[in-house]
Specification:
Helices cover 36% and strands 30% of the residues. With 322 residues, it is of the alpha+beta class. The longest helix has 15 residues, at 115-129.
C-alpha cells in the first residue's frame, strides 16, 4: 500500500483529465510549487502507482471498428493459458488483453478495418486453441463515454465521448511517428519528440494541436496500478429491458456523477451496455450496482461483475493497425 495525501490526489485528479498538463499549470491547479509537484510525480512513478502517461486515440477517426471477445476456458493449465495469451499478444490488431475473475477468464479487444479480418483473427484463435474454449461472447463497440477518475477528489470527473463515428481521417508519416512516441509517454516534450522524428519542436507542437483539433487524439490519460492504493478494476455487464435512447442517456448522466465509473459503453451483442469502474472491493462494487439497479428498475434487469485481475496488453499505438 502506498500512502497518498491530498496533494497527491489533486495531482492525480488533474493528470487523469490531461496527463500532458505542464508542471506550471499543475502547480497552479494544486496550489503548490513546480518542484514539489515534480517530486511527488516522480515518487508515484518510482513507487509504481503511475505506470504510464497515455495518449488515447479515437479508433473511429482512424476507420477502425472495435470488438471485444470474452472467453471462458476449459481443459487448460498454466502453460496452455500462457500460450493463448502469448498468441493474442502477438496479434497486430489486439490492443487490450485482460485476465479476469468470474464467468469469463480472459477478454481481448481487436481493432479492425473490416469484418472478414475479424473473422480470420477469431477463427485463427479457434484453430489453435478451440479445444480449450468452452464459451465465447462477442461484443461490438458503438459509443463510449470516457470519464476521468473523480474519486481522487470526491467530485465528478471530466467526460468526453470516444468512438462517436467511423471515419477514415488520413494522417501522414510525421503524425504516425509522433503518435507512436507519445502513445505510452504523453509527457514527452516537443523538443525530445522533434529530436527523434528529425523535425522541429514547433512543428511537433503544431501537429499535436492539429491531431487534438481533429479528435484523432482523444485525450491524455494516466495508466495506474490502482492496487498500490487498494483499488480494483471491474467491468460491469448490464442486461437491460425496454431500452431507449432516453433511458441510456439518463443512466449515462448518473454514471458520470458517480466519481469512480470511468467508462460507459454502448455495444451490440448479447448485452448492450457495459461499464468500467474502480472500487476498493467486490462487495462495494456490488453495493453500488445494486443501488443503481434500484434507481433504474424499469431499465436494468440484471448485472454481472467481472474483476480485471491483470491487464496483459494495453497497446495504444493504433498506428500499427491502420
Amino acid at each position: 500500500m502506498l500512502k497518498i495525501d491530498l496533494l497527491d490526489n489533486k495531482i492525480l485528479y488533474h493528470l487523469d483529465i490531461n496527463a500532458r498538463t505542464p508542471l506550471t499549470q499543475l502547480a497552479k491547479k494544486t496550489n503548490s510549487s513546480i518542484s514539489v509537484v515534480e517530486y511527488r510525480m516522480k515518487r508515484m512513478e518510482k513507487e509504481g502507482l503511475i505506470k504510464n502517461y497515455l495518449t488515447f486515440l479515437d479508433a473511429g477517426k482512424l476507420g477502425l471498428t472495435i470488438w471485444n471477445v470474452y472467453l471462458e476456458f476449459k481443459n487448460t493449465n498454466s502453460k496452455i493459458e500462457t500460450d493463448i495469451k502469448e498468441y493474442l499478444i502477438s496479434l497486430k490488431n489486439s490492443w487490450w488483453i485482460a485476465e479476469c475473475s468470474g464467468k469469463w477468464d480472459l477478454i481481448f479487444s481487436i481493432g479492425i478495418k473490416d469484418i472478414k479480418e475479424f473473422y480470420r483473427i477469431v477463427s485463427g484463435l479457434h484453430n489453435k486453441f478451440g479445444e480449450n474454449i468452452l464459451n465465447q461472447n462477442i461484443e461490438a463497440h458503438t459509443k463510449i463515454e470516457i470519464i476521468s477518475r473523480g474519486f481522487f477528489l470526491n467530485k465528478p470527473g471530466n467526460n468526453k465521448e470516444w468512438y462517436k463515428e467511423i471515419e477514415n481521417v488520413k494522417i501522414n508519416e510525421t503524425d504516425k511517428k509522433i503518435l507512436k512516441l507519445i502513445s505510452k509517454n504523453a509527457r514527452l516534450s516537443s523538443v525530445e519528440i522533434a529530436k527523434q522524428t528529425k523535425t522541429t519542436a514547433r512543428i511537433v507542437a503544431y501537429r499535436i494541436k492539429e491531431l487534438l483539433k481533429k479528435n484523432i487524439i482523444h485525450s491524455f490519460r494516466l495508466d495506474l496500478n490502482l492496487k498500490k492504493i487498494n483499488m480494483n478494476f471491474y467491468k460491469i455487464i448490464l442486461k437491460t429491458k425496454n431500452i431507449s435512447s432516453k433511458k441510456i442517456e439518463n443512466l449515462k448522466q448518473y454514471c458520470i456523477n458517480e466519481y469512480n465509473i470511468i467508462h460507459f459503453e454502448e455495444k451490440i451483442g448479447s448485452w448492450m451496455l457495459e461499464m468500467e469502474l474502480n472500487s476498493k472491493s467486490y462487495e462495494k462494487a456490488d453495493e453500488q450496482i445494486k443501488r443503481m439497479k434500484e434507481l433504474f428498475p424499469n431499465f436494468i434487469e440484471s448485472y454481472e461483475i467481472i474483476l480485471i485481475k491483470n491487464e496483459i496488453k494495453s497497446e495504444l499505438d493504433l498506428t500499427k493497425i491502420i
